[in-house]
C-alpha cells in the first residue's frame, strides 16, 4: 500500500486484522519448513495430538471459513470429520502428510485471495453462523471477528506444534 | 452495552478486539482454576517451560502493556527480567505460585480498567514502541494492534498450558 493512499477507518482496521492473520499463517509455514515428516508424525507432548493431526485440524478449520464468511464452498468437506469433529484416535483413514500440506497451502492461498476481494463494508456484516436476531444485539460478531478469532486459534495450536522442534 | 446505543465504527472495532482479549483472559483464568500448584510446577511437555514460568511470562507481558500503551508504569518491572528476558533455567530466584497468581490478577484487573477508559480515537494512535516515522508509513501499527497481537500471544501459551490438565 502506498504511503500516500488515504484509507478509510474500516480499511485500516481490516488491515490490522489481516496483518495479524498473515503473521500467524507465515509463522505456521516457517515452522512446517523446519519439521521433517518424522517430526510431524510425533505427538506434540506425551499422549497429545501429533503434528499431522494439528496440521489437518488447522487446514480444516481454515477451510470452514469459506462457508462461514460466505466466500464459497469448502475445498474438502470430508476433512472436517477427520480433523475437527473426530479426535486423532478415531481410527479413520487419514491423508498423507504431503496431501495435508498441499491441502493447507491450497486452502490458505485461496482464502487469502478471496478475503482480499471482500469489500470493506462487507466485513462488518453478519457471518453465517450467527442469527439475524443475535447479530442485531451484538454487531461486533461480524465476519471480521471470525478472522480475529481464528487468528487466535492458529496461535493456540502453534504453541503446541513448536514443541515438535527438537531442542 | 444497551442494544439501543448507537456506537461509532471505532467503538465497534474496539469492542471486537476487547471481546477477543477478554475471552483469552477468561480462558486462562478458567484453566488456572483447574490446575493444582503441583500441576503448575510441572513442565508443559518434557524439557519445556513449566506452568509457573508461563504464568509469570504472561503476567509480565501484560504488565509491559501499561508502558507500551501509555497507561502508566509497570506494576512490577523486575518480573520482566525473570520471565521475559531470561529463560526458565536462569537460576534466578522466582516468586511463589501464590504471588504470581496475585500478580497476574492485579495486572489484568488494572489493565482492563485502564483500557476501558481509553478514548476511542486514542486507540488508533501510535504506541510507544514504534517511531513517528514508521507509524506515518504503517498506521495500522497502533495501540489497538498491540492488543490484537497480545491476544494471540496469550492463545499461543494457553495451547501449551492446557497440556498440564491431566487426561
List keywords for this structure.
homodimer; 167 residues; mainly alpha; 7 helices
Write the layout of secondary structure elements.
Two copies of one chain form a homodimer.
Chain A: H1 9-34, H2 37-41, H3 51-68, H4 78-85, H5 97-116, H6 132-137, H7 143-161
Helix pairs in contact in A: 1-7, 3-4, 3-5, 3-7
Task: Tell me what you see in this structure.
- The structure is a homodimer of 167-residue chains.
- With 167 residues, the first copy, chain A, is mainly alpha-helical.
- Chain A contains seven helices and no strands.
- The N and C termini of chain A lie far apart (39 Å).
- The interface between A and B is large, with 38 and 38 residues.
Quick structural summary:
Chain A has 167 residues and is mainly alpha-helical.
What gyration radius of chain A follows from the Cα positions, in whole Å?
17 Å
- Elements of chain A, N to C (H/E): HHHHHHH
Average pLDDT score of chain A = 95
C-alpha geometry of chain A: globular
Amino acid at each position: 500500500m502506498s504511503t500516500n493512499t488515504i484509507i478509510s477507518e474500516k480499511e485500516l482496521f481490516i488491515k490490522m486484522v489481516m496483518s495479524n492473520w498473515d503473521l500467524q499463517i507465515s509463522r505456521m509455514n516457517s515452522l512446517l519448513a523446519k519439521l521433517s515428516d518424522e517430526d510431524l508424525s510425533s505427538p506434540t507432548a506425551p499422549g497429545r495430538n501429533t503434528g499431522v493431526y494439528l496440521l489437518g485440524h488447522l487446514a480444516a478449520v481454515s477451510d470452514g471459513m469459506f462457508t462461514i464468511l460466505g466466500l464459497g464452498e469448502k475445498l474438502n468437506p470430508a476433512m472436517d470429520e477427520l480433523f475437527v469433529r473426530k479426535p486423532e484416535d478415531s481410527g479413520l483413514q487419514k491423508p498423507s502428510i504431503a496431501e495435508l500440506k498441499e491441502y493447507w497451502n491450497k486452502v490458505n492461498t485461496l482464502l487469502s485471495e478471496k478475503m482480499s476481494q471482500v469489500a470493506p463494508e462487507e466485513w462488518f456484516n453478519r457471518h453465517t453462523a450467527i442469527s439475524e436476531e443475535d447479530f442485531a444485539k451484538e454487531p461486533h460478531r461480524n465476519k471480521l471477528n471470525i478472522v480475529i478469532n481464528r487468528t487466535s486459534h492458529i496461535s493456540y495450536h502453534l504453541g503446541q506444534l513448536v514443541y515438535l522442534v527438537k531442542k
